[in-house]
Design a protein that fits this description.
Elements (H helix, E strand, L loop, with lengths): L1 H19 L45 H8 L5 E9 L7 E10 L2 E10 L2 E8 L2 E5 L8 E5 L14 H4 L2 H9 L2 E12 L2 E11 L4 H7 L12 E8 L5 E8 L2 E8 L29
Antiparallel strand pairs: 1-2, 1-11, 2-3, 3-4, 4-5, 5-6, 7-8, 8-9, 9-10, 10-11
Helix pairs in contact: 2-4
Length: 285
């Protein structure tokens, strides 16, 4: 069963990595409600609520305002696309991912395709529920994993990941970890004019989250005292690119298509969700 959970966790952890590389940290809040069937859609703000994304600040970033400005860029109503490439000498830690993200009700709704541990997956995260398409292993359908469901045999594979993937809460934890921020200069990223900064962060706030990504069982891995990030932001102080090294792995994340109205994250329909245990033939291995 351990090997089975490792397969499931690979895709879930890749989804989490997309948000952790941007902000790091977590909170203990658990979503109250999760969809009971396929076809759910990320809820749009009501008519009497603010439906437009907040206007990001174009002020120069400092160590003191960095976390607040970054938090504003991923506030409710914001949407964007992300790509992430993680390279490592350890093949189990190398992955590539592409995602569409909507920030609604303070947490991300995400649709992601990724290749990790040699397995191609499609993952949808919505209202705290993970839907994972593992290709042939799930018959081309999605395995529904609700971490709050005690009867779901794969719940432990995703427990806590949805909390850590909440950028608003993550940035709050990240805020007190910033040691320095240095402006490197003006640079072009994929045709976008950006400002390049170098950020130094105390690693202690990220220990538990990185333990989850690397298969830790409640014990944080040995980390350097600080992490160095190279960060590029556009004229509205929205992330364009981020690059860092984490425990021997190089992670490059790019961000684009901010507030593109075509980004809509929906849950799979009932017919796209498998009710079969895709690993039954593997027994307890």
């Amino acid at each position: 069963m351990r090997a089975i959970h490792r397969i499931v966790s690979a895709g879930a952890a890749a989804a989490l990595a997309l948000t952790l590389t941007a902000c790091g940290g977590s909170d203990d809040t658990t979503p109250d409600d999760a969809p009971s069937s396929g076809g759910a859609v990320a809820t749009e703000p009501a008519d009497d609520e603010t439906s437009e994304a907040p206007e990001p600040s174009g002020d120069e970033l400092t160590a003191e305002n960095f976390a607040d400005v970054l938090a504003a860029s991923v506030a409710d109503g914001v949407s964007y696309r992300m790509t992430m490439e993680m390279t490592s000498d350890n093949a189990d830690l190398s992955s590539t991912s592409e995602a569409e993200v909507q920030m609604l009700d303070g947490s991300p709704a995400m649709r992601m395709t990724s290749t990790s541990m040699g397995i191609e997956t499609e993952t949808i995260v919505l209202d705290g529920v993970y839907y994972m398409n593992l290709g042939d292993m799930t018959g081309g359908k999605f395995l529904k994993i609700d971490g709050s469901d005690p009867d779901n045999p794969f719940a432990e594979s995703v427990q806590g990941l949805d909390d850590a993937a909440d950028p608003a809460k993550s940035i709050e934890a990240f805020k007190d970890s910033i040691e320095s921020l240095e402006k490197v200069g003006e640079e072009d990223v994929d045709g976008v004019a950006t400002t390049h900064y170098r950020l130094v962060v105390d690693s202690s706030a990220m220990s538990e989250q990185l333990a989850g990504l690397t298969g830790g069982e409640g014990t944080a891995p040995s980390l350097p005292a600080t992490f160095d990030y190279d960060i590029w932001v556009d004229g509205d102080n929205r992330l364009a690119k981020m690059e860092t090294e984490v425990m021997g792995s190089t992670v490059v994340t790019t961000y684009s298509d901010w507030n593109d109205s075509s980004i809509k994250v929906t849950a799979p329909s009932a017919s796209e969700i498998t009710t079969e245990d895709p690993f039954a033939s593997l027994g307890g291995s």
